[in-house]
Design brief:
Largest sheet: 3 strands, antiparallel
Structural class: alpha+beta
Shape: globular
Number of domains: 1
Radius of gyration: 13 Å
Strand order of the largest sheet: 2-3-4
Order of helices and strands: EEEEHHHE
Mean pLDDT: 90
Length: 88
Amino acid sequence: MKRKDGFMLRQFGDDYIVVAVGDGAEDFNKLITLNSVGEFIYRELETDKTREELVKAVTDRYEVDRALAEKDIDVFLENLSKAGLLDE
């Protein structure tokens, strides 16, 4: 899976915002707010990644156990999917 084109990531203070750009902005009138871990995962999804690759990237970068990383990544991916931000 990877993130869809047509969205821009911007930093505002400690948070990151994902907004639609171009023609997609007419249909997508939301702002998605990400913390630094969400921003890291979102950037990882610039290229096609499996769930396992994302779990490894997060556990390699952050001091978090695998079970928690898996759970949090599953919730994050589900939220991105529901918002229409993933090509699966």
